[in-house]
User: Which sequence fits this backbone?
């Protein structure tokens, strides 16, 4: 009895001691940074706690006499403590003496030229000669893999119960020299790929010891390994904990494979036994087979027990470790176990761990569990077993797809949900919810959502076909009036695509109300100006969605059929059919598009043609020269189709501004040389006429911008440059006449303007702005009978008293004036040999008069957008006039005309200071330098909806860019450089890039001062 209780007390004490020493079992808390004095005091507390626990344990389990003896031993334990500490110190010293010894197994592991298979076989040979020596070498190798320099000897293997104490001593001895960058995470070249190599070694080791049956015939082998690895997995030292956990997980993975193999062998043996039993011919053979079955059964039981021990002792605690790398390894290996050994691990008891980790705080771990689940859902064998798991954790998966911060996890979550959808576990409303992510700003997410959209299209398409009644009807629909045979069933699918895109477009904002920062804005603001010189086109939602889905829908690759569908007059054909019950009538009713659907499909058509040209479906692996030739031929063949298609579309949809935008973009994809190659001069002229009509017809910025872009592209084709220029002059004259008719005899500076007149003036001047940006307009704009510049100046002078509704009109006037002066200066430079000083002085005098009118505009902070355009205009003109220096070789005029007056420079800098201040208020920037006190400044008053960080940063950076340009050209003083550079790294990356252009001037000034 006494011996039994003594053993129980000893084990209790060791367990409590282990719990105290390796307190990271649940939390993974790291104690590596604790000082030595703190450890000494804590050690004393541990001993006192252990003594109290021992006495309490004895009182609970003993009778009186035994209790008395144990109490006496407890009292004597204090006297024995010094002796115990002395023994521990000697053992630590022995460990330190062995620190410098190498480990051949570890050295071979880090030698990437060494064969792992040969390494494992060599170790097995060592083990078969001397089992104890083989175990010591293997455990020391594990310690070296932890980054530990201490090693054990054969004496430490004698008592498994002392593993915890020995490991504690090893940790204490190696506390100072322990590698923080331990091998499996080290980025050193020495350990590059070491983690993968270590896992591979463990797998080969398990395979070989099981094949040679050391795993089953020598149970002490796995017992010793388990004792050390499991103890290390609860260590407070991360290197020990992580490495031992990795080895444990790798062992379970390999043991799962072994268990599979043994199970199959047992099944084969059972079949053999049943066969021999039926024959009853050879009793001896039946005994042999039965013996094999029994052996396999024992092996299976051993393997299951070992796997469960590792899972309960390591995985259950480490899957929630404080280190995300350890948690990630646990999740990854659990997924492998489920695939390798589904009979045990593919169960709700184990699946729940994956569900819990979906809410892990580490993105790395969440991403790993999503990838693991994706593998399970892609395997048809697991679908039935995943139903309950899906019901429980599906809301979390959808939440991750919609709102996860990490974009990689969002993409993987959407891929996972697609697997869930294919299993039939998603409801229609959940699929609709995920489809709204087609409008996400991340192109990768839009691409991942494409399969959901395709599934919805197919579902609605089948419903439409069922509405026709006879499923074979789609094959029976003939041609009308001798038309060529059309692939009309595709029309229904085009109709479905348009309906679904519109439906998603209308619901996306409401569904993603909590995630609006990741969703494209619904409409482009047509009041915003579009830069003609910019290659970037403002894209709306439908365009971005089309870029994601077009390459995945075979019917959209056949864009000629889509164009045919759009050109077809569905109303006229349907009206010719008398009976509403007639199949053709029902067909045309179902597939007839609405105006909104036509606009959507025109955007889709543009994307389809664009992708066909720039992402063609032919072998891109061919030689570059051949590829370039094929690409040119393909682009030319597409252009030939567009030659007749674009004019037809413009004629049919000329009433719709939205449709015209898409068609004009489509026209810009035509290779203009095709017109010349096929002698289509008249067709080209007709096309220019249609473009001009669209420009003059629609008061829409997007239409005007795309029309001007088409004309600008046409200008670059030299063969038709004269035809293009004639058309541009016609448009200029028509636009000027429109402004002239509106102005009549009014003095626009003082006249009262009605809302209708302001609207007409704004549209007319916008057209002048756009058309003057691509071609010299002086001859048309500045005639003796009517000067556009004078009319624009009258409008600019209304700044003193104008109404908010006139804002766009004033801005348009400023922009148009800028283009006028640009062309005037270019004219002077081009004809510098024939220009008199009188002409030069006249244009400079006009410029100075214009600038005098800019002072009140820029100083008026009530309308900061007008101030922005005025400052931009002023600096641009000074930079433009700087080019006149090339014709001032004879000093025709004073050089001071190239420098902005001091007063105006101060106004510009104060305006920039104001923009910077407004930006810092909404962006919470700190440490920014200002030129004036905040109390003396005023808020920007107009259009508070635009005072967002992005808009204010745009104004701030563009004004800064203009000021930097003026300083570099000498139009502004260098004294402002310290102020501009002083705010570097405080106002964003864009600001930093702009002011970095001043570094050269600042360096030159410093060098000048030194000299």
Assistant:
């Amino acid at each position: 009895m006494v011996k039994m209780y003594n053993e129980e007390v000893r084990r209790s004490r060791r367990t409590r001691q282990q719990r105290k020493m390796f307190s990271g079992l649940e939390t993974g808390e790291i104690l590596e940074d604790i000082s030595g004095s703190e450890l000494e005091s804590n050690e004393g507390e541990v001993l006192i706690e252990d003594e109290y626990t021992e006495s309490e344990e004895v009182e609970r389990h003993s009778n009186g006499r035994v209790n008395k003896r144990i109490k006496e031993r407890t009292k004597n334990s204090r006297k024995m403590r010094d002796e115990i500490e002395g023994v521990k110190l000697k053992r630590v010293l022995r460990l330190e003496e062995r620190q410098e010894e190498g480990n051949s197994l570890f050295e071979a592991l880090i030698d990437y030229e060494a064969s792992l298979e040969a390494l494992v076989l060599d170790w097995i040979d060592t083990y078969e000669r001397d089992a104890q020596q083989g175990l010591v070498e293997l455990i020391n190798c594990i310690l070296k893999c932890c980054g530990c320099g201490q090693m054990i000897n054969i004496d430490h293997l004698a008592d498994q119960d002392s593993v915890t104490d020995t490991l504690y001593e090893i940790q204490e001895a190696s506390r100072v020299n322990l590698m923080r960058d331990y091998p499996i995470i080290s980025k050193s070249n020495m350990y590059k790929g070491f983690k993968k190599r270590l896992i591979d070694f463990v797998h080969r080791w398990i395979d070989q010891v099981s094949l040679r049956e050391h795993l089953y015939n020598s149970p002490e082998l796995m017992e010793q390994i388990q004792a050390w690895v499991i103890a290390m997995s609860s260590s407070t030292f991360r290197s020990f904990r992580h490495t031992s956990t990795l080895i444990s997980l790798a062992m379970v993975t390999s043991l799962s494979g072994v268990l599979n193999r043994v199970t199959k062998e047992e099944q084969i043996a059972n079949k053999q036994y049943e066969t021999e039993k039926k024959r009853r011919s050879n009793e001896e053979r039946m005994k042999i087979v039965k013996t094999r079955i029994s052996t396999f059964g024992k092996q299976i039981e051993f393997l299951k027990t070992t796997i469960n021990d590792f899972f309960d002792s390591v995985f259950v605690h480490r899957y929630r470790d404080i280190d995300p790398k350890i948690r990630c390894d646990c999740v990854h290996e659990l997924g492998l176990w489920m695939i390798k050994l589904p009979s045990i691990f593919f169960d709700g008891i184990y699946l729940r761990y994956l569900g819990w980790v979906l809410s892990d705080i580490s993105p790395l771990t969440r991403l790993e569990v999503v990838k693991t689940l994706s593998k399970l859902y892609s395997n048809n064998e697991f679908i039935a077993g995943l139903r309950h798991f899906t019901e429980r954790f599906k809301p979390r998966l959808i939440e991750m797809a919609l709102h996860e911060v990490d974009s990689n996890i969002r993409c993987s979550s959407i891929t996972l949900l697609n697997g869930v959808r294919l299993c039939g576990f998603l409801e229609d409303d959940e699929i609709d919810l995920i489809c709204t992510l087609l409008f996400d700003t991340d192109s990768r997410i839009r691409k991942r959502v494409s399969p959901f959209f395709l599934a919805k299209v197919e579902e609605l398409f089948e419903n439409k076909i069922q509405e026709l009644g006879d499923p074979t009807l789609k094959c029976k629909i003939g041609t009308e009036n001798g038309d060529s045979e059309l692939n009309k069933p595709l029309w229904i699918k085009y109709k479905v695509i348009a309906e679904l895109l519109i439906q998603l477009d209308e619901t996306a904002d409401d569904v993603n109300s909590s995630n609006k920062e990741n969703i494209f804005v619904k409409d482009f603001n047509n009041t915003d100006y579009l830069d003609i010189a910019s290659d970037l086109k403002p894209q709306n939602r439908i365009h971005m969605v089309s870029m994601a889905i077009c390459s995945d829908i075979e019917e959209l690759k056949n864009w000629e059929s889509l164009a045919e569908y759009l050109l077809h007059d569905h109303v006229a054909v349907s009206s010719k059919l008398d009976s509403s019950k007639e199949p053709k009538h029902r067909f045309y009713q179902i597939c007839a598009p609405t105006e909104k659907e036509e606009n959507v499909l025109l955007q889709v058509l543009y994307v389809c043609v664009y992708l066909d040209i720039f992402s063609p479906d032919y072998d891109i692996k061919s030689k570059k020269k051949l590829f370039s030739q094929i690409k040119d031929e393909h682009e030319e063949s597409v252009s030939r189709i567009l030659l007749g298609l674009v004019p037809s579309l413009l004629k049919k949809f000329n009433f719709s501004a939205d449709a015209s935008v898409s068609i004009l973009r489509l026209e810009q994809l035509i290779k203009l040389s095709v017109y010349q190659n096929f002698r289509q001069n008249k067709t080209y002229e007709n096309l220019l006429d249609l473009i001009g009509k669209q420009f003059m017809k629609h008061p829409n910025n997007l239409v005007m911008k795309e029309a001007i872009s088409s004309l600008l592209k046409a200008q670059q084709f030299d063969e038709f440059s004269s035809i293009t220029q004639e058309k541009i002059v016609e448009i200029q004259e028509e636009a000027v006449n429109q402004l002239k008719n509106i102005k009549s005899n009014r003095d626009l500076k003082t006249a009262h303007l009605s809302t209708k007149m302001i609207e007409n003036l704004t549209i007319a001047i916008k057209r002048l702005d756009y058309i003057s940006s691509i071609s010299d307009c002086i001859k048309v704009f500045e005639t003796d009978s009517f000067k556009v510049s004078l009319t624009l100046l009258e409008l600019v002078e209304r700044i003193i008293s104008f109404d908010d509704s006139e804002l766009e009109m004033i801005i348009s006037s400023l922009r148009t004036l800028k283009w006028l002066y640009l062309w005037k200066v270019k004219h002077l430079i081009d004809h510098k040999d024939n220009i008199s000083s009188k002409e030069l002085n006249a244009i400079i005098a006009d410029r100075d008069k214009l600038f005098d009118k800019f002072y009140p505009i820029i100083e008026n902070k009530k309308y900061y957008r007008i101030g922005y355009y005025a400052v931009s205009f002023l600096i641009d003109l000074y930079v433009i006039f700087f080019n006149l220096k090339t014709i001032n070789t004879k000093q025709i005029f004073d050089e001071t005309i190239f420098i902005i007056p001091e007063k105006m420079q101060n106004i510009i800098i104060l305006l920039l200071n104001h923009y910077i201040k407004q930006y810092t208020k909404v962006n919470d920037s700190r440490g920014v330098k200002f030129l004036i006190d905040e109390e003396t400044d005023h808020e920007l008053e107009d259009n508070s909806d635009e005072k967002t960080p992005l808009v204010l940063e745009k104004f701030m950076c563009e004004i800064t860019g203009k000021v930097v340009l003026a300083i570099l050209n000498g139009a502004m003083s260098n004294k402002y450089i310290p102020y501009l550079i002083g705010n570097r790294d405080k106002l964003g990356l864009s600001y930093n890039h702009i002011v970095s252009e001043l570094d050269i001037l600042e360096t030159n000034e410093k060098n000048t001062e030194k000299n």
